Amino acid sequence: MRARLVVFPIKGRKWCFSRSVDPFAAQSPSAVTPTTVRGLWKKISSESKPINANAELLVDFISDKMNKAWMGLEIAPEGSMKSKIHGLGLKLLARVKPSEIFLKSISKEVTSVQVSYPPSLDPRLVRRRLRHIAMSGTILHKKYLIGSVTLLPLTTAFTVLPLPNIPFFWVLFRTYSHWRALQGSEKLLKLLSNHSNPETDDADESNNNNKPEQEAQSPTCVLLPSEELYKLLGEASEEGLDEETIVEICKLFHLNKIDVLKYRNLV
């Protein structure tokens, strides 16, 4: 499966990295997970799979349960306890960095990436920035994943309280989120590194300036300049792109407006 990535400057030296979501894409059958603990155990015990594959299945099972619980909070009556928990959850989610959301979008099913960017940017710089965010993600989210796993047993102590164990579920979500971001970082780095050796890419750049960009492409990473994106960017001010322009870009490339605005408002 090919993922379409969109890269463009959004405010000063800040760049936005986002993945297009195909609104007509159907869910892959391989993404279907068991709905019960019994079904999960049956699938794990009946099929001969490596430990990491069973771990993925367990993570998907927990994720499915968390998503269903979150959907239940969304439809809760106004003013109820569930509605207040949902509001608190939205505030916490607003603090999640957009780079984490971007890396999580690079799922294990992705086999190649197509990068759309304004032609005013050097394609090799675009590739290096993508590689940098992937390499940073592997280090950062591995560290946070270990920290979240360490906190999980501690937050179970709050189950003695006559209230929903919000700390436990939040730490559980963060554990899952860092796991997915780590997997996405490693996947993206692999797809980008198939282009060339990261250690020699910068050194060879001066020797490759006269080569057509198509020769620098890899089957797993294709960079395509977008004139439409360039026209929408126009002359961005130091305050960054205005919301109207961001909305137009999101409509054109099927991006999540809330995630894109996070890049502009990131301190």
UniProtKB/TrEMBL annotation:
Pfam families reported in the protein's UniProt record: Mit_KHE1 (PF10173)
Q: GO cellular-component terms in the record?
A: mitochondrial inner membrane
UniProt biased composition (Polar residues): 206-220
- Annotated source species: Brassica napus (Rape)
Gene encoding this polypeptide?
Answer: BnaA06g00730D
PANTHER family referenced in this protein's UniProt entry, alphabetically:
K+-H+ EXCHANGE-LIKE PROTEIN (PTHR28062), TRANSMEMBRANE PROTEIN (PTHR28062:SF1)
Q: Which InterPro entries match?
A: Mit_KHE1
Q: Where is this region: Disordered?
A: 194-220
What is the recorded name of this protein? (rape) hypothetical protein
One Gene Ontology BP term is:
proton transmembrane transport
